[in-house]
Design a protein that fits this description.
rod-shaped
């Protein structure tokens, strides 16, 4: 009889711990899941591009570019197209485009042309 009461007590305690854990964890689980899902590099990049205003010129998620008469081909290239490959040689060129909207090496060439 004493062993049976001990087993029942243990089952009740384990059940209580299970219910308490579920009561604590279930409301937090969706937030933890979406926080985990949104922590991937693509989502962080999209959030950063939105915050920096990149989609204003490159279109929704960089899918389409807008007209830009000041460029060689007359448009801001979309991110998925091959236009950028004609101008970008390395990671520094990409940084220049992102931060300044143009290449530093091109800027240097233009300033040396105007000086002569």
């Amino acid at each position: 009889m004493h062993a049976r009461r001990s087993r029942v007590f243990i089952v009740v305690v384990i059940g209580f711990i299970g219910v308490a854990t579920a009561w604590w964890a279930v409301p937090r689980a969706p937030g933890a899941y979406w926080s985990w899902r949104s922590s991937n590099p693509v989502r962080r990049g999209i959030d950063k591009a939105k915050a920096l205003g990149c989609f204003q010129c490159h279109g929704q998620l960089g899918a389409i570019g807008l007209r830009d008469p000041g460029t060689i081909d007359g448009e801001v290239p979309p991110w998925g197209g091959g236009t950028w490959m004609m101008f970008v040689r390395d990671e520094q060129d990409i940084r220049d485009f992102i931060l300044d909207g143009r290449l530093q090496r091109k800027k240097k060439t233009e300033s040396s042309d105007s000086a002569s």
